[in-house]
Amino acid sequence: MDLVPALEEPLKKVLGPATAKVMAEHLGLHTVGDLLHHYPRRYEERGQLTHLADLPMDEHVTVVAQVADARLHTFASAKAPRGKGQRLEVTITDGSGRLQLVFFGSGVHKPHKELLPGTRAMFAGKVSVFNRRLQLAHPAYELLRGDSDETVETWAGALIPLYPATAKLESWKIGKAVQTVLPSAQEALDPLPDSLRAGRGLLPLPEALLKIHRPHTKADIGDARARLKWDEAFVLQVALARRRYADTQLPAVPRTPKPDGILTSFDDRLPFTLTEGQQKVSREIFGDLATDHPMHRLLQGEVGSGKTLVALRAMLAVVDAGGQAAMLAPTEVLAQQHHRSVTEMMGELAEGGMLGGAEHATKVVLVTGSMGAAARRHALLDLATGEAGIVIGTHALIEDKVQFHDLGLVVVDEQHRFGVEQRDALRGKGKQPPHLLVMTATPIPRTVAMTVFGDLETSVLDQLPAGRSPIATHVVPAADKPHFLARAWERVREEVVNGHQAYVVCPRIGDDIDEAADPKKAAGKKSPEDEAEKRPPLAVLDVAGQLGRGPLQGLRVEVLHGRMHPDDKDAVMRRFAAGETDVLVATTVIEVGVNVPNATAMVIMDADRFGVSQLHQLRGRVGRGSAPGLCLLVSEMPEASAARQRLNAVASTLDGFELSRIDLEQRREGDVLGQAQSGARSSLRVLAVIEDEEVIAEAREEAAALVAADPELEHLPGLRTALDALVDEEREQYLEKG
């Protein structure tokens, strides 16, 4: 029988079942290799003590400090009525701040003996406040004793690794476990090809693991991190490069439009010329559609840059070539909106088989979950016979009953709202893999796109079509300056008087069923400035009533939210689009795709409750016609708060790519990769997507060259092993379906 390679040895065997169980349940670590890749979060120098002044509330911390004094108090309590209760209060200091530790009952004996003034130790616990002072109750601690043969200098200079820990397992216990398995690092298989490593002056992997866990100097840490970042970037990019390579090996039907077919007729009808950007992206897409392997393209476009038009031209090209095209939208409102705008843009070209239809016409059908049975049967028949060249729908399109005659192109709108399985199910409906065009209006910084969607070619539309108006955005500090809010409602009235319409957006719907009405859930993080967060977020139903009775009295106000019946939603949208409603009070259901050129103003209530990209997305609903747009971000958060700085950033630029960088820097990429990696733990431990742009770009080039030369990685067993670890079965399927 084969010996288990050292790094695949289960922790249970090495550390014992109790420790291994905690590591598996709380840190997701199962093998020796997992533990070696659990890197320290930061390092303490024994000579330099932690800043006690900067401790975060309610978080589990590890501090290195010195005992200033220790006092034992006795007191009477229900458990010890004769004044025999004992409380040990220990004050520790790092020279800049002080922190109180408390121990009770029988737990006082050991610390009372050990924590004498002048003693240094590592303390770990949860920071809380008692009598307006920070304290750690019953912290775990580890004394820092210099061994007799260790000089004070080497002791003070030593770097103590502090690991991401949990209440069940303190940092130093993880450190001791790492110490136990560290010898196995010598057997780590190096995923980087020797030539690459030598060419870039990177440490071998065993040495990097040794130096990240047991550094002698800060330079050791820097060298180790530089090496481990390369591992993460390179292995991920090789996985994506292999995906791209595999796609080029799949067969697909080339779809080339007829020279004077439906696409030409459509272009002739357009009342405007395409922007340079639209023409360039269209050329890229048509180039891909003409090849005999499936297109995989991500189309990123600023809100209002005309992505739908580019996608429609691609769909018409496929219809011209005898195939069918399907567009998948995340909500019924959006599917109906797309169906309406596509049929309007196409005019008689969308009336195939009908009286008055144009010569090259086709049918455009809508498939949603709430359709009546007869209409649905009719639509499905048109799909199966090929009568309908274009279908627009929600995930109802994915059901088994839906059959296509010849599916040639799938367009997915707002990609981040669809599970991979859903996209895959739709792609599986083609006789051969259909071409895939993924659209998103949430601009993704280039490096994130390379890391997350590295298997998709990317096209970017960053020009606004002629006739689009700029949007002015202002923050309205409702708590500091209530008269600003009053002025906001006056501005809405002025827009309506001038013949325009407005949106008012609220974070929740209202009424008792609303889960967000629970202030505990709504309150989010607590910090001193979170007074505004203590109340539940403002709700559509409440705000609409207050506006109708108050500042917007006499205007036609309607509400729109996700719990309304689809027919009612559609009726409200139709009335708003027709100009029969002045003000629409809505939740974020209007976030994507809703197109009412006459709507010029938007007021976003509790704007601090929305993410940066979401605010940018919402704002794109105004300024879609020739009149300038106005967006007012209402917030009760104080001027100095992070939330207000975020809103100021949104107000200061209309560049979605710039905003998505800000968003990412604030949220870190765990969210981004979490979404992309099927919710699995982010594979990035030392690589930061925004900071390490250069590493990612270089790793992508190296990976592409390597895979082109050796697609099966026959000569690189270490890299194959690392890939297997990164792309476990779940992710492998995820990438397969991507």
Task: Describe, in plain words, how this protein is organized in 3D.
This protein is α/β, with parallel strands linked by helices and 738 residues long. It has 27 helices and 21 strands. Strand 11, helix 14 (373-385) and strand 12 form a beta-alpha-beta unit. It is globular and about 95 Å long. It starts with 10 loop residues before the first helix and ends with a helix.
Gist?
With 738 residues, the protein is of the alpha/beta class. Helix 8 (205-213) packs across helix 9 and helix 10 packs antiparallel against helix 12 (307-320).
Please tag this protein with its features:
single chain; 738 residues; alpha/beta; 7-stranded parallel beta sheet; 6-stranded parallel beta sheet; 21 strands; 39% helix; 18% strand; globular; disordered C terminus
Mean pLDDT rating: 81
The description of the largest β-sheet is: 7 strands, parallel
- Overall number of strands: 21
Helix-strand category: alpha/beta
Low-confidence stretches: 147-156, 513-533, 669-682, 729-738
- Approximately how much beta-strand content do the residues carry? 15-25%
Q: Specify the helix fraction band.
A: 25-40%
Rounded to the nearest angstrom, the distance between the terminal CA atoms is 38 Å
**Computed CA radius of gyration, to the nearest angstrom:** 31 Å
Strand order across the biggest sheet?
11-12-10-13-14-9-15
The global form is globular
Please tally the helical runs, counting DSSP H or I stretches of 4 or more residues.
27
